[in-house]
Design goal:
The chain is an alpha+beta fold. It folds into three domains: 55 residues; 98 residues, no CATH class; 77 residues. The chain contains five helices and seven strands, in the order βααββββββααα. The strands form two sheets. A four-stranded antiparallel sheet has the order 1-2-3-4, with no helix packed on it. It has a three-stranded antiparallel sheet with strand order 5-6-7, sandwiched between helices. Strand 3 and strand 4 form a beta hairpin. Helix 1 runs antiparallel to helix 2 and helix 4 packs antiparallel against helix 5. The two termini are 42 Å apart.
Length: 253
Amino acid sequence: MAGSDDGGEVRRYRAPVAMSVFVTVFFGGGAVAVLGPLFTADMPLALALALTALVAPPAGLTMVVFWRSSTTAGPDAVVVRRLRARRTAWQDVQAIEIENGPARAAAAGTRGRERPGGIVVVYDRGGGTTTLPHVGYGRGGSVSEEAAALRRMWERRRGPDWRPLPVAEAAMAKAEARKRRGGAIRAAATRARAAALVTILVQMAVILVAVLTGAVDERTSIPGGWIALVSAGPVLLVFATVFLVSLARHRRR
């Protein structure tokens, strides 16, 4: 990232070199590790070439897109480059927000409560979103700090005639509702998994006590189906109950 505080400030974001090297080694090295043995093993050449054509292009495309991807916030617009460049003029921007945060900024650009991390997105006048790659993950501040700096640029450069548009506000409201539902489902699943794990531990403790006290030994004959039912049934029941109760509590808030 580079820039100053004057009217011609430009902020550029690219992936750190170390991250780019890692992606290249991971996908490029992985493709070589997978495809290399095909040409040394006893495999028909046509089949080896077919598998290469299946694996190599996605790996290569991933590396090219990652190396090319960048975000540039200039005097007139924010430009996102991947395979192609996508330009959104500042006057067409309706909000700059951080996804996966607990609250969004208002359409006027005020800063909402945000937790570290996340992905910065731009809402345009049609309600569409554009992800800004690498903001906060290259040189510069955190995601939250860089998003705040971009909002200040937007507020200075969107022009005096800028107004929030109902279409964009409706799209942002829907996105926020989806975010809240997704957060509730993830929280409920986390609680349900914890409860299921406790149930499994209790079952293991009961079995251990039964074995140690001689209530169950190698002469005890229990059909395998009953063992599976008795073991898995309570776990599934606890998981489903905790999951549904957690979702119900969220809806009542």
